Amino acid sequence: MRTAAWPLSAAAALGLVACSATANTAQPSAASPASSHPRSTAARPTTTRPAAPKPTPTPPPAVIVSQVRAPDGSAVTVARFTGPVRYRLHCGSQDPGPAALSVVRAGPRIGPAEQHHVVAAFNGGFLLSAGAGGYEQEGHVISPLRAGLASLVIDASGAAHIGVWGAGLPGPHEAVVSVRQNLPPLVTGGEPSPAAADWTAWGATLGGGEYVARSALGETASGQLVYAASMSTTPGDLAAALVQAGARTAMELDINPEWVQLDAAGAPGGPLHAVIPGQVRPASQYLAGWTRDFVTVLAG
């Protein structure tokens, strides 16, 4: 697997210092009948504590990209979103379309103010008309959320996680802002779902073939999100690549060449570059505007 970045302690002690005792005895005299007694003084030992170790600096937001070769030969691109990042769900011009555009702020394109913070952007899920799950954006339920389906949940702080709606999601007192659902989980408990082996259960493919463009999103035990995609792969290969990357849970996102897209910048606000080999859409697509929902990854 090839990986690329897109980009003390101290101690001191002081020795003891002592002054030697001196004794002086004066002879008695008529003028001074008293005699002096010996006196001694000693400096108290002093020490300094070791300097506190400096805190480890937080790594900057970044996208770490690697390529995984599946046993069947298909190549899967895996992207980790590291450092302090937050997520934002965008509505597409056609899907969810007008029902969402009339009430949400994050629309079909990345605006100039948001662009300064963009680290990456990736595709959402199936058309809502496919019946693969519900959709909520910025507190507005555009399509009813359904229990038992894999869900990307974004809270008020921009933090995101993945799980099964109604089985631990939403969390107690969680300030849910946006939810994107798509099919049952692809990975559960750190293992590919048994259904991952049946490619027919994961959406209608272009030309009816098993090997098509596919994408998925997973979450590791540490809460890091990991995106995986290929222009020719299977649901099982995506699940295996995400498990290898440490995902404990994962969901499939959109499929087929027109819709699978990951763009990333070398630094927040930098130029976006297409990440998936053979990706159809240009890296500027989400800046110009797009018909389908997508997610931006922003510097925290």
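That was protein one. Protein two is written in the same sequence-then-structure order:
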Amino acid sequence: METKNQSEVWIKYQNSDEFIAHRKRFRSFAFPFAVGFLVWYFSFILLTTFARDFVSTPVFGNINIAFILAILQFVTTFAIAWLYDRYATKNLDGPGSELKEKIEKELQA
């Protein structure tokens, strides 16, 4: 198959309603969670930089607010990964596989 024909197939599917809907499904999850996490992350950085008295407040024993917020960063990361896995399995994997099969079938023709 010619490179030109392959390019035409890829461009055709990239502009298809099916691919646009798939990309929208991905972005509807990824962008809000990315923005939310970045806000949360930079809030943590700003608090530990400029509100040292606040984050140094002991909660129990040697555990202070900064330590709890740091642990919550890890918890948040794993929670987002888990939520994305569930979302992708339910909303992205099936349509993505179908789209991939259509593209591969047309490229092999």
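The chain has a mean pLDDT of 94. Keep this in mind for the problem set.
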